[in-house]
Amino acid sequence: MRHPYLPPPYPPPPERSAELRQRFAEEARSERPDLSALCLLIGAETDGSLDEAGIDAAQAELDRLAGELPYRPGGPHAWAEAVSRLLGTRYGFHGTPGDYQRLESSLLHEVLRRRRGLPILLSVVWLEVARRAGAPVYGVALPGHFVVGFGTAAEQVLADPFDAGRVLTGTDAELLVVGATGAPLHPSMLEPAPPLEVVQRILNNIRAWAAARPERSDVALRAVELALLIPSHPARLRYEHGQLLVQRGQFVAGAEELEYYADLIEVVDESAARKVRQEAGTARAKLN
């Protein structure tokens, strides 16, 4: 459905959207959620031009890149160097500050096409290519900057896909964390990030992009509604969902969602619940 005043991406039609959301929910609830599949479903729900052939082509590209890695190059450091040489040096995957202003930087199919993206999406490329080749790889959600890790905690090697896969020293990682938070690096920050946490962060980034562009509340709404399909999502997403529905003129649905959120938080914060119910009442009044 095209909007005469908004630039692409345009969303898929309702039937396609319903099917994509069902697949996303099933994958998110599976025993071992597939990170690339979830990212491509986010892409298809955000960008209606991504059809099944496009999804298959993106998966095939990840397979192709994995096939170009050397067979068992060695320990964690050798793996990090091999993936960096392939993706960062040979194929030019990296990020720049300008990529933070582009929605495509959060969509895996576009990152594979442009070879540019946010740290977390470039990390997804590193993860999926290296995993397919048998590397001991995982995401590491440093505060403010996502990277990838190779090997066990005792021999961990970090690489920064945003910087073309540069292998990080301990000092590099410390500086990244201090720069983002002002606080020192804590060992807990270096633990592997589960796939659903990665997906939730990607959806958070899409919502942040849309929040700075009120005319793209359609993009924000789709990202929130996908995030609500992830098990154990934050309760506050319900509040954000209700606000977006009201903002887009869906006053009854928005008021119902706000009231649902008020019921959730009433036990722990009665005054906050009362304020949310007032917001719901204001939304209903807009119907008159």
Automatic annotation (TrEMBL):
Pfam families: TPR_9 (PF13371), Transglut_core2 (PF13369). Coiled coil: none annotated. Residues 1-29 are annotated as: Disordered. Residues 16-29 have a biased composition (Basic and acidic residues). Residues 1-15 have a biased composition (Pro residues). It comes from the Bacteria. Residues 58-204 form the Protein SirB1 N-terminal domain. This is SirB1 family protein. It comes from Streptomyces cinerochromogenes. The lineage of its organism: Bacteria, Bacillati, Actinomycetota, Actinomycetes, Kitasatosporales.
